[in-house]
Specification:
652 residues; alpha+beta; Beta-Lactamase; Helix Hairpins; 4 domains; six-stranded mixed sheet; elongated; membrane; PAS-assoc_C
Length: 652
């Protein structure tokens, strides 16, 4: 039984069946169309012939049935009936057809059927005759009589001088027509059976030429599946199957080479996975880890994670259970792990692995360390918020005072001048803010090139102290400038370094209480000390010229002797030290951030934009140096700028 079913499933049998069915369907369609067309044509010809006979008979009978007959020798009704009888019996005789002629009342005057002579003198009450006597010319009906013979009925009115004087009634058998159609059907069926038999024989021969090479290919494929790559399929021709045999032989050789290269590719993939900068963890459909790379283990702080559930590995059971199984194939999560004082922010991207017809067969997790990225994004958000806030405050003040002036304060001279002064101060504050922002932008985009020139260091520091002498006298702050005697001229951008020093000294004055002290020092940093923090200014000898408030004190220190004196200097450290209120330890890490203020209200009231130290840092970085800040709350602050000394700019 199974062998018979398998036989009918072979390609050979399928080809034969399809071939025969195609021929059968084609011949059936042709036959249906041909016989239908032929039958329609025969029926149309038969009906047209009857209509012509009926029309001719109605014209001839019109004169006979009129009240003034034109034919001599027929003066009475009897003679008219005999004349019509001869007319329908001889002139209009149709095979197996009956013709009747009726007067205007429907009474039968003549009939061509000898068996229906008794109908003469009686009325024909059929619907077709009634319609004809009413003047309807198209009266055709198809009927089947008691003997099962199909007949065609036609009734035509007899008109004479635009007056209906009678009717003509024809009943013709269609037996010969349908007998002809049946004969043609039998001829067509015989031809179709003969064609199907011939088609079956040709189909067997055709299928044999196709299936034999396929069987050989099947045997060879089974051998390849078992690992036998040394056999070849015979090529029997140059047709598609021959080409298939050639391609299969070529595929066998390529498969042998591919299997040998597969192991190498696996090793390459394992090497790539192991050396990826992102961590990768793959789990099966049950959620257990099956593959992980080295970077993932480093980020997860684990030695091995195979066999561990993803929900336990990332501690996110809810998210894994809600991982989409339809069109949404990805979920992005954030996972934080503590590491010392700072958390590491890790993004875990979960992607389900889809297999056709099997749904989700596993999950791949990609781990990325985005601590720095998130920190930069947070800084960007804070920067935008700070800019908006810094601009909104003066704009709100300007708007309020402008509205007050518009409402009548301008009429009071003293009050109006005070309001205008406030508006001017706030406008200048916004100008300073925008100027600092533009300066920062140019520094960030390297659009502020350095214009280095030989600069006298003691002179530059003295000028900085002189520029702020008035402010320092107002707060009774004493200032001193200390420069090593071997520091004379250096190569730097004088304008930009002046801006850095002005910012540092200005901050020192703002946050130093009355009667305080500010020290500006410059010293060399030798190769062995480069990169470390310079010593505090207390290391310098206190040889001060004057102690009056606001007067700048200047002292020098002799060059160090011994081995240190013979070392080549590599950089110069400029420090600004004050005895002000200091900065809390928690704020030291962000003191150089843009718009960051330790005491926001006090800094804003002093006119600061919160960008000074940021600009200073960018300028120092552009010079290839560094800036550092050391502070103790309520004891003071020291800001140190380290600048490299260029060879062309060193003078002794």
């Amino acid at each position: 039984m199974n062998g018979g079913i398998r036989f009918f499933r072979t390609i050979q049998v399928k080809l034969i069946i399809i071939y025969v069915l195609l021929i059968l369907i084609a011949m059936q369609l042709i036959g249906v169309y041909f016989i239908s067309t032929m039958k329609t044509s025969l029926t149309s010809t038969f009906t047209n012939n009857l209509n012509e006979q009926a029309n001719l008979l109605s014209e001839i009978a019109g004169q006979t049935l009129s009240s003034q007959p034109e034919k001599p020798g027929n003066p009475g009704d009897q003679t008219r009936e005999e004349y019509l009888g001869l007319l329908v019996s001889n002139l209009f005789s149709i095979s197996e057809a009956e013709i009747q002629v009726m007067d205007a009342s429907g009474k039968v005057l003549a009939t061509s059927s000898q068996s229906h002579q008794s109908y003469i003198g009686k009325k024909n009450t059929s619907l077709a005759v009634s319609r004809a006597l009413q003047g309807v010319r198209d009266n055709e009906e198809d009927i089947i009589d008691e003997d099962g013979v199909r007949k065609k009925i036609i009734a035509k009115p007899v008109v004479y001088s635009d007056k209906i004087v009678g009717a003509v009634y024809l009943v013709a058998s269609m037996k010969d027509l349908y007998r002809t159609v049946d004969r043609i059907n039998r001829i067509f069926m015989s031809g179709m059976l003969f064609a199907l038999g011939l088609t079956g024989v040709l189909g067997i021969l055709l299928a044999h030429t196709i299936t034999n090479p396929i069987k050989a290919l099947t045997r060879q494929a089974a051998g390849v599946a078992e690992g036998r790559f040394d056999q070849q399929v015979p090529v029997l021709g140059d047709d598609e199957i021959g080409r298939l045999s050639e391609v299969f032989n070529n595929m066998t050789m390529r498969l042998r080479d591919a299997l040998s290269a597969n192991e190498e590719e696996k090793e390459k993939l394992a090497s790539i996975l192991a050396n990826m900068s992102d961590g990768v963890v793959a789990a099966d459909e049950r959620g257990y880890v099956i593959v992980s790379n080295r970077r993932a283990l480093e980020m997860l702080r684990r030695d091995d994670c195979e066999g561990v559930k993803l929900s336990e590995l990332f501690n996110m059971e809810d998210t894994l259970s809600a991982l989409p199984k339809g069109n949404d194939q990805q979920a992005v999560l954030y996972h934080t792990q503590p590491e010392g004082e700072e958390d590491e922010l890790m993004r875990v991207t979960l992607t389900p692995i889809h297999r056709r017809e099997h749904g989700i067969s596993g999950t791949i997790a990609v781990l990325q360390d985005i601590t720095e990225q998130e920190r930069l994004e947070q800084s960007r958000r804070e920067f935008v918020a700070n800019v908006s806030h810094e601009l909104r405050t003066p704009l709100t003040t300007i708007k309020s005072y402008a509205e007050a002036l518009d409402e009548g304060a301008m009429d009071e001279r003293e009050l109006g001048q005070r309001f205008v002064g406030v508006i001017r101060n706030e406008t200048e504050r916004m100008i300073r803010l925008v100027t600092d922002l533009l300066h920062l932008s140019r520094l960030d985009s390297n659009q502020a090139p350095l214009r280095r020139q030989q600069t006298n260091m003691p002179e530059m520091l003295e000028e900085v102290a002189d520029r702020f002498s008035f402010q320092m006298r107002k707060k009774s702050i004493r200032a001193s400038v200390r420069v090593e005697d071997d520091i004379t001229t250096v190569w730097l951008d004088r304008d930009q370094i002046d801006q850095v020093l002005d910012n540092l000294v200005s901050n020192a004055i703002k946050y130093t209480l009355d009667g305080g002290r500010i020290e500006i020092t410059a010293r060399r940093m030798h190769a062995r000390a480069a990169g470390s923090m310079p010593e505090q200014s207390d290391a310098y000898p206190s040889s001060e010229r004057s102690s009056r408030p606001g007067r700048t004190e200047f002292a020098t220190r002799a060059s160090e002797s011994g081995d240190q004196g013979r070392q080549e200097p590599s950089s110069i450290a400029i420090s600004v030290k004050d005895t002000g209120i200091g900065i809390p330890k928690r704020d030291l890490g962000r003191i150089f951030d843009r718009f960051y203020r330790v005491d926001k209200a006090r800094s804003r009231s002093m006119g600061g934009t919160g960008l000074g130290l940021s600009i200073a840092r960018e300028i120092v970085k552009a010079h290839g140096g560094s800036i550092a800040l050391d502070s103790e709350l309520n004891e003071g602050t020291t800001v140190t700028v380290v600048l490299p000394l260029l060879t062309g700019g060193e003078t002794s």
